[in-house]
Amino acid sequence: MHSIPALAPDTTIAIVGAGRLGGVLARALRAAGFVVIGPLRREDRAPDADIALLCVPDSAIPAVAFAVRPHARLVAHVSGATPLADVDFSLHPLQTFTGTETPEVFRGIGIAVDGRTPEALDVAEQLARALGANPFHVDDAHRAEYHAAASFASNFVLTVLDAAEHLAKDAGVDRAYLAPLVRQTVDNWAASGAASALTGPIVRGDEATVARQRAASADYQDLFDALATATRAIAARAPHATTHTTADHAATTEEPEV
Fold first, then answer.
1. pLDDT by residue (tens digit) across 47-90?
2. In this structure, what DSSP letter does residue 42 have?
3. Cβ of 161: how many Cβ atoms within 10 Å?
4. What's phi and psi for 149, nearest 5 deg?
5. Which residue in 206, 204, 225 sits closest to 215, CA to CA?
6. Is there a contact between 57 and 82 (Cβ–Cβ < 8 Å)?
7. What is the DSSP secondary structure assignment for residue 58, as one 8-state letter?
């Protein structure tokens, strides 16, 4: 093993964990020119390496970090939620993975990094850039908020889309017809934020339509109510927003008093 003031092409990286992200990272780091060992499974012996990159469940990080520590110059994990108590740095790609992606999947995405020392943080940033990604810093104090944001942006979006798919199916509409709407909505949000991109009956104050939608939501009414409440809060921030009630909406059709 050798010291790592900067990452050299012959830096050895042991990928510990053969799940979705472990496999994709191994392929990408190998394509970036590093000497990659693994991905290693639970029964494999810990090899000597410059960096041990733990791609294991969060609950397993302390024990695995302890096991590989004698064999690596630096130990890191790829968890977005776990603090650095047992490792030297973290590297969390802000992306969803199926395990089949090519190394190009990292190009242009963001990777959250943190390090217990300036050297460790520098190594994390170098690895992110070697993958073609853009590193950004998230420390332990803000890790929970960051990871919650990631769940809202990915996991919870799928929960909402699943509800949309089932309701559309009941109407005889395939999810393929919803996909362009989803893509355009995301593009609009990326360009200007939710308040500016918001459309639909809530932002228009059309409570009669909202009521019909709620009645048609069947098993999803609790989800509809929670989302409608949150959407009204967004609508209140929209440019030129006014707070609507059913009566207010009716009043907007009348001529103003002189």
1. 999 999 999 999 999 999 999 999 999 999 999 999 999 999 99
2. T
3. 14
4. -60, -40
5. 225
6. no
7. G
